[in-house]
Specification:
With 74 residues, the chain is an all-alpha fold. The protein has one domain. The protein is built from 3 helices and no strands. The chain is elongated.
Length: 74
């Protein structure tokens, strides 16, 4: 179990640069100078995509933790 926790922790620390833009957004934004707006749009898409996963993980962890503590106290 400890190895799984370490692998999970290390995988959360790693960052892989991703491009989350759709094809049309990418085509419009690639024509700009400096690519500042394109990077901002990409970061916003990644942020909006990550929030539901973080919430689901949090609820799942809370349920697991509550079950684990109840089981341990018996």
């Amino acid at each position: 179990m400890k190895n799984k926790a370490i692998v999970l922790f290390l995988s959360l620390l790693t960052f892989i640069e991703t491009n989350a833009q759709c094809a049309m957004c990418r085509a419009v934004l690639e024509n700009e100078e400096g690519q500042g707006v394109a990077k901002g749009i990409n970061d916003g898409i990644i942020y909006l995509m990550a929030i539901p996963y973080i919430l689901i993980f949090g609820v799942g962890f809370a349920i697991y933790w509550k079950y684990f503590r109840v089981k341990k106290e018996k």
